[in-house]
Write a structure and sequence with these properties.
The structure holds two protein chains of two kinds. By secondary structure, chain A is mainly α. Chain A is about 70% helix and about 0% strand. Chain B starts with 5 loop residues before the first helix and ends with a helix. The chains are: A mainly alpha, B mainly alpha.
């Protein structure tokens, strides 16, 4: 049976396998836990990294989330939802609880200069430049905005699904996404002004 | 097809992006039609499409494998739910007994109030004896000094 986690946006994991593993984890089965970690870790790190915009912070959040999955495994109830959704909710809460400000890795100007030095053809240079400016602009959004963008554009979730993950309303998620996209556009436009 | 104002169309594009599949179902046809005849909405649609492409690249960026320390985690004790035991069996009985006690005490207070009110009234209206006049004056002085004024009550 294939154990790799799917790429972002490719849909939910196999619920039967994850649920079967989780039921064994609830009985204290460490081998099943390791298998479950392998199944979820790529999705988890991607989501945490995009939300926190920091690799080390993201790994810490994932480690904590998996620890909670293990210690509170007995609380999992398959009748109330799948393992992936339950775990994602744990991870989202942990990411959003990390209130301390994470400074941008690089300034927008630095990102712009970095892209300028790339010896690629013009089209590639423009694309890299856009991605670099987007990354720098992302660093200036708050974690809730990045989380909503990640769940909507990365995981392909609906407004209602994101609202459930973030414990808010679909209307609030729409507002959050709208403001996030608008801020990104504004910051990116600022960085190309002379 | 429901009518859609340009403001609503712009708000949908701002939050949902340019992919009609992600728009609210009831607004898809109207929004596409509006984009065909309104230059502002058409420009916003093109802008949203460019932003979607950037965000898709951002979300699909490769993620290196996480370094989850599973051995450290499985060394932690798992929390076990507390099974319902015989201790909880007498809880309804305790609740019923408490309720009965409250009703009994309430009834007794009501009974005492009905037949003991006259005595209480007599005590309250009795004229103080001459020996108690000094004590009453002392109480009055105490109240005069220590009763807060309206301004002091505001401060309190």
């Amino acid at each position: 049976m294939k154990m790799d986690a799917p790429a972002p946006g490719s849909g939910p994991l196999m619920p039967s396998l994850a649920t079967a593993l989780m039921l064994r984890v609830a009985q204290g089965d460490a081998a099943a836990f390791t298998q479950l970690v392998r199944l979820l870790e790529r999705m988890a790190l991607g989501l945490a990294w995009r939300t926190l915009n920091d690799r080390v912070e993201a790994e810490d959040a994932c480690q904590q989330a998996f620890a909670r999955l293990w210690t509170q495994a007995a609380r999992f109830d398959p009748a109330r939802g799948n393992v992936e959704a339950w775990f994602r909710r744990i991870l989202v809460n942990l990411c959003l609880d990390r209130r301390r400000a994470i400074r941008p890795v690089q300034s927008i100007d630095a990102a712009f200069d970095l892209a300028d030095t790339a010896p690629d053809p013009e089209a590639q240079a423009i694309a890299r430049d856009d991605q670099a400016r987007l990354a720098a602009a992302m660093a200036r959004l708050n974690p809730r905005q990045r989380l909503a963008l990640s769940l909507f554009h990365g995981e392909g979730h609906s407004m209602a699904e994101i609202a459930a993950q973030m414990e808010t309303t679909a209307k609030a998620v729409e507002g959050l996404l709208g403001r996030a996209r608008n801020e990104l556009r504004t910051i990116m436009n600022e960085s190309v002004m002379p | 097809m429901t009518a859609l104002s340009p403001e609503t169309a712009l708000a949908i594009l701002a939050s949902h992006g340019a992919d009609p599949a992600r728009w609210p179902v009831q607004d898809r046809t109207a929004l596409l039609a509006l984009a065909g005849r309104d230059a502002t909405v058409a420009a916003a649609l093109a802008d949203a499409r460019a932003m979607d492409a950037l965000l898709a690249g951002w979300a699909a960026a490769p993620v290196p494998p996480a370094r989850i320390d599973t051995a450290a985690i499985t060394a932690l004790p798992q929390q076990r739910p507390v099974p319902p035991g015989p201790v909880r069996a007498w809880r309804p009985a305790l609740l019923a007994a408490s309720l009965a006690l409250v009703v009994a005490v309430g009834g007794w207070i009501g009974f005492a109030g009905q037949y003991g009110g006259q005595v209480a009234t007599e005590i309250a209206t009795a004229t103080p004896s001459s020996a108690g006049v000094a004590a009453a004056e002392a109480d009055l002085a105490f109240a005069y000094v220590f009763t807060p004024t309206a301004a002091e009550e505001d401060v309190i």
